Amino acid sequence: MKKSWILPCLLLPLLCGCEQVEALVGRFRQPETVSERPPVRVRTVEAGRADHLPGQVYTGETEPERSVVLTAPYGGTLTGLPVSKGDFVAGGQTVAVVRSQSVESALDIAEATLSQAQDAHARMLKVYPSGAVPEVQKVDVETQLAKAEAAERAARRAVANGTVKTPYRGVIGELYVDRGVEVLPGQRIALLMDISRLNIRIEVHENDISSVVVGTPATVSIPALGLDDLPAVVAERGYVASPLSRSYACILQLAEQVPGLMPGMAVKAAFAAPLPTEDRIVVPAAAVQMDTQGKYVWTVEDGRVLKTRVTLDGFTGRGVAIRSGLIPGDRVIVEGWQKVSTGMKVTEE
């Protein structure tokens, strides 16, 4: 009786037919899940000639051509602070006065010592012609007088240094202390900025810094003033990278000073394309990668990623020149290349 189920199972294909059996068996199969990875979003640029490529835009801010933090020469009481934040000051103008009891006492001691040495020297001169004073004693008295004079000058200079003055004309950008407080040696008192000429500081990524040299032309936009396409040039090129952003600080100088421009204003800068000396394809430096077989770029064709081998031909103001491997119109990935591989579907931005 236990094996009575075998016969119906053997006869089932004959009675029901193959199609019905397949449908019956399909009811017990686990459904197959078909899923395809969604396309990765990347940013691409069109490979083209040097004079047709859009420039890389860098953000930055304006800064004074020179600035200095005025500090306390020694510890003491800040008895004078005759300036306020935002005041325009001339060169050599007093910014703060620091008084120190120990420094003033040192001057009193130096003056007393000098007076004593001068008196001894005057007495020696009265008796020296008569031969009552040996030559050795005369030299010693003169030496003590010279030491006392030097000590007095140093002590007087230290007291004078308590008056903090500006090294050049400018504006007081910041005050770090208030009048009447006790300051420590080297403590910040005020920030002096020379704003007669303002420069622009931008951060250039390590992938692009090789194409930036002193004298490279650029255009600057200042959104706060509603100004665009202001001519500028690279005045300084950074050589020390930031450990966090891996970028280099570069200084741009405007061709002309802009009325209303203030330190700290946000700017946008783009390097102008140089006149092409030959017909070369140029891509942003960030697009070029390297593996054990050489240089390559990721390109997009019909929504799929391709690994395209390239040969470089130096740098230009707009990026890396390509000798072979690309043709004008190729779509090159410049952002998001870390997430792609050959044949992957992508969505371009």
CATH secondary-structure class of one domain: Mainly Beta
How can the largest sheet be summarized? 6 strands, mixed
What would you report as the Rg, rounded to the nearest angstrom? 40 Å
Order of helices and strands: HHEEEEEEHHEEEEEEEEEEEEEEEE
Mean pLDDT: 82
CATH topology of one domain: conserved putative lor/sdh protein from methanococcus maripaludis s2 fold
CATH architecture type of one domain: Beta Barrel
In angstroms, what separates the terminal alpha carbons?
72 Å
Poorly predicted ranges: 24-28, 30-35, 274-278
Q: Any idea what the shape is?
A: elongated
Q: How would you classify the quaternary structure? A: single chain
Helix content: 10-25%
Tally of alpha and pi helices: 4
Residue fraction in strands: 35-45%
Report the structural category.
alpha+beta
Walk me through the structure.
The chain has 349 residues and is α+β, with helices and mostly antiparallel strands. Among the domains are: 42-54 and 277-348, conserved putative lor/sdh protein from methanococcus maripaludis s2 fold (Beta Barrel); 57-66 and 197-271, Beta Barrel (Elongation Factor Tu (Ef-tu), domain 3); 102-152, Helix Hairpins (Orthogonal Bundle). 21% of the residues lie in helices and 40% in strands. It contains four helices and 22 strands. The chain has helices at residues 6-16, 18-26, 101-127, 135-161, and strands at residues 40-46, 48-49, 57-71, 76-80, 88-89, 94-99, 163-165, 170-175, 182-183, 188-205, 217-222, 227-241, 247-254, 266-271, 281-283, 289-291, 294-301, 304-309, 311-316, 319-324, 331-335, 346-348. Strands 1, 16, 17, 18, 21 and 22 form a six-stranded mixed beta sheet that branches. The chain has a six-stranded antiparallel beta barrel with strand order 3-10-13-12-11-14. A four-stranded antiparallel beta sheet has the order 2-15-20-19, with no helix packed on it. Helix 1 (6-16) packs across helix 2 (18-26) and helix 3 (101-127) packs antiparallel against helix 4. The longest helix is centred in the first third of the chain and has 27 residues, at 101-127. The model is unreliable at 24-28, 30-35 and 274-278 (pLDDT under 50).
